[in-house]
Design goal:
Blueprint: H1 5-25, H2 30-57, H3 70-106, E1 110-114, E2 120-123, H4 125-131, H5 135-138, H6 143-146, H7 150-158, E3 164-167, E4 175-182, E5 188-194, H8 196-232, H9 238-269, E6 278-280, H10 282-295, E7 303-308, E8 313-316, H11 318-334, E9 341-348, E10 354-360, H12 382-387, H13 394-404, E11 408-414, E12 417-424, E13 429-430
Parallel strand pairs: 7-9
Antiparallel strand pairs: 1-2, 1-5, 3-4, 4-5, 6-8, 8-13, 9-10, 10-12, 11-12
Main location: membrane
Pfam family, one: PAS
Subcellular location: Cell membrane
Length: 431
């Protein structure tokens, strides 16, 4: 049933006025009596207001709620209900925060909440295991004073989402990878993951590939030598000549795969950027490579057009840079149909870079394949690549050589145009 609290107040006010008027009627001074009655009513109302204010100030305890009726009862009840709802809301929020904290604390990745000035606001348990940062002890401290790693400091200054790898300050045998995740208000979360197992697996894989390639090279050389002897034997039956030639071609292809795997393994094992290296005469190297391609792969099938700056030389590893030239040229010839025109350029850019580009007017490469072209053994057309003798490692080698020389490899393709562009930084360009 809905209670009309203001009807109680109207009744009370009417009763006070009526009683006051009745008393004043029988006295010789009715006005002072009525004023006194009204002042008494106002005083009583102020007392109720004081009780309500004191109850609210003391924490709105249910046992201390003012005992009244009418509008005062409703006001006290509404305040009490609002307090109960607020407490319930706080309880649920606290449960949610506790559950969220438990989830983050159970994660194997370290999570550290930072403000805009890199002060630690919160850290989970994994931060203590991986970084030695303890929430209760280090809260409020600057993280760059606790973790003295240049790469991590640079990441914090850049405020970017790139990833950096560094050894754990708690255990030098652990390799960690960190990234920053932006939040609202300038806050950020530093997420740090232990990638030691993946790094070790990568090293094991590289060692296995290198060792297996070395072990396969000697017996394969012996087999190839014997096949060449058999092929030159005048008494060899004619029906065995074709299978023997095919076997020798496949053995040569396997030798090329092994050589590429060894080259790629060597490049991947070089974790730091090399010194500037020796002077590389790119124009002369390009002329030799282009002429070799013209005489072999592109003979009577492709048209090669060149534009080479004659005095543009760079510093680096001549052997590795030559592999970039050879792989890009051979790749463009092998994977385009006869009659294709290939445009080869070696030129300087306005920003000082030196760029080697190979562009053709072939059918192009579907866009979905472009991000995967530099992956090892990746082929757009499996059948055509095998028929052309490709190993699937050429572009992977090119990518690692360019990274090792602080350069970039950019691949663009659309129907009727495919471009491979390898650019060396200005600091490697010789005047």
């Amino acid at each position: 049933m809905v209670v009309d609290y203001w009807s109680v107040e109207r009744y009370r006010f009417g009763l006070v006025i009526g009683c006051g008027a009745l008393v004043a009627w029988f006295t010789p001074h009715p006005l002072p009596i009525m004023i006194l009655v009204l002042l008494s009513y106002i005083g009583w109302m102020l007392y109720k207001l004081y009780q309500l204010q004191r109850w609210l100030t003391n924490g709105q305890k249910p046992e201390e709620m003012p005992d009244s009726d009418g509008a005062w009862e409703q006001i006290a009840y509404l305040f009490h209900k609002a307090q109960q709802k607020s407490q319930e809301r706080k309880r649920k929020q606290q449960e949610l925060l506790t559950r969220f904290d438990n989830v983050l604390s159970a994660l194997p990745d370290a999570a550290i909440l930072l403000d805009a000035d890199n002060h630690i606001q919160w850290a989970n348990k994994s931060a203590a295991k991986l970084l030695g940062i303890i929430d209760n002890n280090d809260r409020g401290k600057r993280i760059d004073t606790l973790l003295r790693n240049p790469d991590l400091h640079k990441l914090l200054e850049e405020n970017s989402e790139r990833k950096v790898t560094f050894p754990s300050p708690r255990n030098s045998n652990l390799t960690l990878r960190a990234r920053l995740l932006p939040l609202q208000g300038g806050s950020r979360v530093l997420s740090v993951r232990n990638i030691s197992e993946g790094v070790q697996l990568q090293k094991t894989r590289k060692a296995f590939i290198a060792n297996a390639s070395h072990e396969l090279r000697t017996p394969l050389t012996v087999l190839t030598g014997y096949m060449e002897l058999f092929e030159q034997d005048p008494e060899l039956p004619e029906y065995l000549l074709a299978p023997l030639q095919q076997s020798r071609e496949q053995a040569a292809r396997m030798q090329q795969i092994i050589s590429d795997m060894l080259a790629l393994s060597r490049l991947e094992s070089q974790e730091t950027t090399p010194l500037m290296g020796n002077r590389v005469d790119m124009p002369a190297m390009l002329e030799n490579s282009i002429q070799a391609i013209r005489d072999t792969l592109a003979a009577d099938t492709h048209r090669l057009e060149t534009q080479i700056e004659p005095d543009l030389c760079i510093c680096g590893s001549e052997k590795d840079i030559n592999s970039v030239i050879t792989n890009l040229l051979a790749n463009s010839v092998k994977h385009t149909p006869p009659g294709t025109t290939i445009y080869i350029r070696w030129h300087s850019e306005a920003d000082g870079q030196a760029c080697f580009s190979v562009e053709d007017n072939g059918p192009g490469i579907p866009e979905k394949h472009l991000p995967h072209l530099t992956e090892r053994f990746y082929r757009v057309d499996e059948g055509r690549s095998r028929a052309s003798g490709g190993t699937g490692l050429g572009l992977a080698i090119v990518k690692h050589v360019m990274q090792w020389h602080n350069g970039t490899l950019k691949i663009e393709s659309k129907p009727g145009r495919t471009s491979f562009r390898a650019c060396f930084p200005a600091k490697r360009v010789l005047d």
